[in-house]
Amino acid sequence: MDALKQELKEFIIEQLNLEDVNVEDIENDDPLFGDGLGLDSIDALELIVMLDKNYGIKLTDPKQGKAIFESIDTMAAYITEHRVK
Amino acid sequence: MSKSYKIKSYCQIKDGELSLNGHLIYADHSNTFSEFIKGAYKSEKTKYPKFFKMDKLSKLAFLAADVLLKNEKLDPSIEQNIALVFSNKSSSLDTDRKHQETIQDPSNYYPSPAVFVYTLPNICIGEVSIKYKLNTENSFFIFDGFNARHLKIYSDILLSNNKADEVLCGWVDFEDDTHYEAFLYLVSSNGNTAHNEHEINKLYNN
To answer: Which CATH number does the domain A1-82 belong to among 3.40.50.10610, 3.20.20.30, 1.10.1200.10, 2.40.320.10?
Structure first.
């Protein structure tokens, strides 16, 4: 689980172009949207594509994303339970 | 008789150099476009994290516009009536190619939303408008080459019909990492340079 959380942090920083943010700057329970990392709606779509591409998880209801992408903790828990890759 | 307008200020980015009103303010000839534009952005001390999410065309347009508008010392609390008229020849081709790469292989079909949103040249106008709160007239034209006559006529019409107080216009073209160019200038009632084809071309070819 810790390796997955590290992987997710690295992906978010690199793929979402978070300049000046390091892995150690992101706490596992930090909110990813809003006041946390300040991700936007395009970033949310990018995370949905990442779930499919990297873990074989297809989100059919985008509303699910709100709970799944709340933090690194919630993402890692959902991926661990539903991954097919 | 139609009113004559002036070129208030202008900004150029090309060949690893950024200049304002003919004065070099940043240069880096040893790096890729991405490194150059990042260095130029940091040298300008513009705190705008969304810059790093933009495509290369938008970074080029945003930085040139930012240098020009910052130089005007605009009051951020007041909505500015500055129209935007941009043009180029490559449209958003660089980003279009990147998007195409993500959908080329049917067995690995994962279009990136962050890339796709930039597959229109006028998105760069939106980026400038968001940063400077410009709810104003805007247009993006595609030409075979720099077209001073069109820019002059179009911006004069906007100003003479009171559609804008000033016009930020010019040429923002990103073909590839070694062929890119931004030339933006501000047209106003005030300024030291006449707004005519000859002067626009003279500044552009400077």
So the answer is: 1.10.1200.10
